Amino acid sequence: MKVDHAVSAYVVYKQSLGMRFATEARTLKSFSKSVGDVDFDRVGPELVRRFLDGNGPLTLFWHRKFGVLTGFYRFCLARGYVRTVPLPPRAPKCPQAFTGYIYSEAEIKLLLQAAAARTRCNIDASTSRTLLLLLYATGLRISEALHLNLADVDLNERVLQVRETKFYKTRLVPIGTDLTEVLREYALQRFKRPPSDPDAPFLLTRRGQRVSRAGAEEAFKQLREQAGVRRNDGARYQPRLHDLRHSFALTRLVHWYREGADVQRLLPQLATYLGHVHITGTQRYLSMTPELLQQACLRFERFVFGGTDHA
Questions:
Q1: Where does the pLDDT of residue 297 fall: very low under 50, low under 70, confident under 90, or very high at 90 and above?
Q2: Count of domains for the chain
Q3: N or C: more exposed end of the chain, with fewer CB within 10 A?
Q4: Which residues are tagged catalytic?
Q5: Integer CA distances (angstroms), 229 to 107, 142, 175, 285, in order
Q6: CA distance 122 to 218
């Protein structure tokens, strides 16, 4: 049996169980492409290790690939597709967890200025600006923003409908007045003649097609470099488009601290707004920045020396 045939069988099996399995399927297709069009029995430890190691430093992605291949080979071994498992006997020590980047307001302005100057790109200035503000103001996942259709953007009621997200949930996301006007301006500019199809994409490329995630991330990389927004904390990765989600969550938390709100009571609401099933998913986004630490210290001082703030 060829590797790609085994991959197809495994993906069909997983999806038949009700699993979306999209990310894992992409990993397995990359594995199949990496080892080539060969019989399964010819895939030895060296080919597997070459796929796992890649060309860069060891990251958490190594462990994700290892986990996907472990399940894949367990499936194939049980069905007699292979006789041996060429995976490493043990995985290397997991590197330190990645810490998201928190954009300052000044950096957001620099990114918006860079977006306004875009001339030679499949994603024009208007779409770039709208996507940045949409992510920064709502904390949507990139895929959620890009999959919005015309019918999902209700500017009269000021609400977005995010359909079948990461956890197979559909949720309503209220938006503020400022973002509503941004989206209304974009809609008027992009859709001179309103499309008759409510399932038409909201965010468009210059050619009138739905913006892809790869295209959005590449465009953002160019924007970031043009704006001069960089990490200086020694991290391996530069700021990402997804980090706008981290920035939204942390900014909301800081605002609640400043307002004297009951943060512990409001955290479940933030988790629901972000589309998390459990509050632990939200806690990953709440990095301890100097501003957040300052607000937490002020809250603690008021609690110790008098006042009614909640801990």
A1: low
A2: 3
A3: C
A4: 141, 166, 242, 245, 276, 285
A5: 7, 19, 27, 20
A6: 10
Q: With pLDDT > 70 as the criterion, what percentage of the chain qualifies?
A: 83
- Spell out the residues 6+ positions from residue 41 whose beta carbon is closer than 8 angstroms to its own: 82, 83
**Across the beta sheet with 171-174, what order do the strands follow?**
153-154, 159-162, 171-174
Give the Cα separation of 28 and 3 in Å (integer): 10
Range of the domain at 24: 3-78
With beta carbons less than 8 A apart as the criterion, state whether 187 and 126 touch: no
Within a domain: residue 88? no
- Tell me, yes or no, whether 71 and 172 share the same domain: no
Q: Which residues of 237-253 are buried (b: 16+ CB within 10 A; e: fewer)?
A: eebbbbbbbbbbbbbbb
Instruction: Dig out the tokens for 99 from the structure.
Output: 């810490």
The answer as to whether 233 is a domain residue is no
Kindly write down the DSSP assignment for every residue of 145-161, as one continuous string: HHT-BGGGEETTTTEEE
3-class DSSP assignment, residue 135:
helix
* pTM, 2 dp: 0.64
For 222-271, what is each residue's pLDDT tens digit? 999 999 999 887 777 789 999 998 888 888 887 777 777 777 787 777 77
Q: 140 in a domain, yes or no?
A: yes
CATH number at residue 152: 1.10.443.10
DSSP assignment, residue 39? B
Paired tokens of 269: 């609401």
For 40, other C-beta atoms within 10 Å of its C-beta total 18
**57 and 117 fall within a common domain:** no
Task: Please state, rounded to an integer, the average pLDDT across all residues of the chain.
Answer: 84
Region 34-40: what's the mean pLDDT? 90
